[in-house]
Structures are given as structure tokens and as C-alpha cells.
Amino acid sequence: MTADSQPTLRRRPTLGLVGATVSEHINVLQRGYLADRADAVAALARMRRGVGKPYGTMPELWGLTGMEALYEVRTLSEERTIRAEEAAHTALTLWALHQQSHRQNRMHQADGPELGAAVRRLMPGTELDEPTRKRFVRAGTASSLPILAQRLRDIVLLLRRDGIPLDYGLLADQLEQWQQPGGLDRVRRSWGRSFHAYRPQAADGGATQADHTARSAKTAKTEKEIS
């Protein structure tokens, strides 16, 4: 195992209906965005405006979120359908924010980092970065999905800054589970495990002073955007 690898505590679960739907739709939009297709670029711009807003308040996103597969399952209850819509909407809009300005790299990667591991990758070397850790803790203690979405937005801006991808299919499934009875604790446990299981490099690869200065400037810019 390399110094920068992540040990596997358990097999990554197969995506559920919501996660598979989100992953498939993001893959289509992501290919279009990376190819600089005007329709995909415009779709992402509209979707970014939905970050932190409930799905039912954003009719301008109808037809852009690829949720058709959710309604093909006739056995879903109304309550389950609402949970699925909110989870998919939250994951899709966060990805649209994450992908912004990244024209070469995919910020959604199937089997990519889980949220906890992605946050840990924000911290160079072996030391914990306390401001970043606190943002992660605040996300874990959110009391409602809209609050969680806003706190995840702050984390996503940091991930976008450093070009760290995320598995948005898995995140979508976890956001659906988060809304279920007992689901919050299971999601928190999974995020915490992936955070602690990730093994960063022992050193930051011999970064130069210029590298550190550039990173500090990017951090200041991102903190201004978050605030």
C-alpha cells in the first residue's frame, strides 16, 4: 500500500436508485461540460443557483436534473419520492458548483473519495487543519437537509479550490439515507470512518515556498467566497 493510499475498511456499497440516477446524469453533463458544449455549460450555471434551496422551490431546474428514472419506479411512496428528490437535487447542485471552472478534470468520480476522505485530502501532510476539520464537524451536526446543504457548500468550495473529486452518486444515496429514521447516525459514522481511514502522505512532497504562498492566496480567496 502506498503512502497516499486509502485502506479499505469495507466494500463500497452498490449505488441505490438515487445514487445511480445522479451518477448517470452527472456523467452526461460532465462530458458535455468538459467538451465545452453550450447546453451543458448553461445547465451547470442554472443548477449552481439551486445550491442550498429545496427542490420544490426551483421550477427553473425542471428538465435539467435527470430525475426521470425516479418516477419510473411505481412502488415508491410519496414520502420516499420526496426524500429521493431532495437528495438528488442537493447532490446535483453541489456537483455543479464543484465542477465550475474545472475544464480538464472530472469532479465527480464513480468510486472516488467519500466525503470524509475528500475532506482529509484538503489537509496536507499528517497534521489536521483545524478550520477545515471544524467545517466538516459542522456538516456532521446539521439539523436539517437545507442546513446540511449550505454547510456542504462550504466544503465543496474548498474541494473545488484544490481540485479534489468526490463520488456524488454515493453522496446522493447518503443524503437520502440521512433523511430516514436512524439514517443520520449511519451517514455520520460512514463519513467519520472515511475521514480517519484516509492516509495522507507523510510530507507534502517537497512543496516550495512559492507553492505555499499560492495555496495561501487561494485559501484567502475561497474563505472570502464562503463568507
Write the layout of secondary structure elements.
Elements: H1 17-34, H2 38-48, H3 68-71, H4 78-99, H5 115-121, H6 130-140, H7 145-162, H8 168-178, H9 183-197, H10 209-226
Structural overview:
The chain is mainly alpha-helical and 227 residues long. It has helices at residues 17-34, 38-48, 68-71, 78-99, 115-121, 130-140, 145-162, 168-178, 183-197, 209-226. The protein is built from 10 helices and no strands.
Supply database-style keywords.
single chain, 227 residues, globular
Brief digest:
By secondary structure, this protein is mainly α.
Give the overall shape, derived from the CA principal axes. globular
Rounded to an integer, what's the Rg over CA atoms?
Answer: 17 Å
- One letter per element, helices H and strands E, the order comes to HHHHHHHHHH
Q: How many beta-strand segments? A: 0
Continuous helix count? 10
**Which class do the helix and strand fractions yield?**
mainly alpha
Largest sheet: none
Average pLDDT score: 87
What is the CA–CA distance across the termini? 39 Å
Question: What is the helix fraction of residues, given as a range?
Answer: 55-70%
Strand % is under 5%
Spans of at least 5 consecutive residues with low confidence: 1-9, 203-214
